[in-house]
Amino acid sequence: MSLTKPLRVLVCGTNFGRFYIEAVRARPGYALAGLLARGSTASRACARRLGVPLYTAVDQVPDDTIDLACVVVGSTISGGAGTELAMSLLGQGIHVLQEHPVHLDEFTACVKLARRHRVQYRLNTHYPHVAPVASFTAAARRLTERRTPLFVDAATPVHLMHPLVDILGRALGSLRPWRFADPAPAPEDFGPQPFRTVQGVLGGVPLTLRVHHQLDPADRDNHALHWHRVAIGTEGGVLTLADTHGPVLWSPRLHAHRDADRRFVLEGPGTEHLGLPTTSVVGATVPFNEVFADLWPQAIGHALDELRDAVAESRDPLRSNQYELTVCRIWSELAAVLGPPQVVRPPAPQPLAAHELFPDHHEPDTSPVRAPDDGAASDAPGPVTAAPYTPSAEFFDLVAGGHTATSSGPAVARALAGIDTADGPIVDIGAGTGLVTEAVARALPDAEILACEPATGMRAVLTSRVFGDPDLRRRVTVTDGSAPDLELPDRISAAVLCGVLGHLDTEQRRYLWERLRERLSPGGRVVVELMGVDDPVALPATRMATAHAGRHRYEWWLDGAPDPEDPSAMRLHSTYRVFDAAEAEGADPLREVHDSYRWIPFGLDRVAEESGLRTRPLTGRTGGPPLAMLTHHPIA
Question: Which residue range or ranges hold the Methyltransferase domain (predicted)?
Answer without folding.
Answer: 426-524
